[in-house]
Design brief:
This protein is mostly beta strands and about 170 residues long. It is about 0% helix and about 50% strand. The strands form four sheets. Strands 2-5-8-11-13-15-16-18 form an eight-stranded mixed beta sheet, with no helix packed on it. The chain has a six-stranded parallel beta sheet with strand order 1-4-7-10-12-14, with no helix packed on it. It starts with a strand and ends with a strand.
Length: about 170
């Protein structure tokens, strides 16, 4: 649990059987890399004014609730080359903005591989790209009007994407 901390690196660890595997609370500029976080309630929770943190090359699998959870205002965090498999929710963005999930995998989470909740339009300002979901199909996320045709997806998440069009 890092509370109000900055500039830390957590690397090459296996963390299991806790309430939260890793909990960043109002903590910024931390690097989490090469981790295995499993069999916790939440794998990695990033809460409050936790900004500019990176989670890289980590496996956050088999947690009973959420794999990686960004909650209540974290911004400018980046999750890359990581997996969130076999949790209740793989990646959960809850009232956050300006975060990135890139080149990652979220599979066999039930009921959601990716869940996004926002109470204001700015909570849709996140970037999610090259995210693979269940069945090795892509998860696509849009926060503006889009048109899709002939797509086979694991999951489609629209957040403030009014007037979008879908065919086949």
């Amino acid at each position: 649990h890092l509370s109000g901390r900055s500039g830390n690196t957590i690397k090459n660890c296996t963390i299991s059987d806790f309430q939260y595997g890793i909990y960043l609370e109002n903590s910024s500029n931390n690097n989490l890399t090469d981790l295995v976080v499993t069999s916790n309630y939440d794998g990695i929770r990033v809460y409050g004014s936790s900004n500019n943190n990176t989670i890289t090359n980590s496996n956050v699998d088999g947690n009973s609730d959420i794999g990686i959870y960004l909650y209540n205002n974290p911004s400018n965090n980046q999750i890359s080359s990581s997996t969130a498999n076999g949790n209740r929710i793989g990646f959960y963005l809850n009232m956050v903005s300006d975060n990135q999930i890139i080149n990652s995998i979220a599979q066999d989470n039930f009921p959601y591989d990716l869940y996004v909740y926002g109470s204001v339009n700015s909570h849709c300002n996140n970037t999610i790209s090259n995210l693979t979901g269940s069945g090795n199909r892509p998860i696509k996320y849009f926060n503006s009007t889009t048109t899709l045709e002939n797509e086979t997806l694991s999951e489609l998440v629209l957040c403030n994407a009014d007037n979008s069009n879908f065919k086949n």
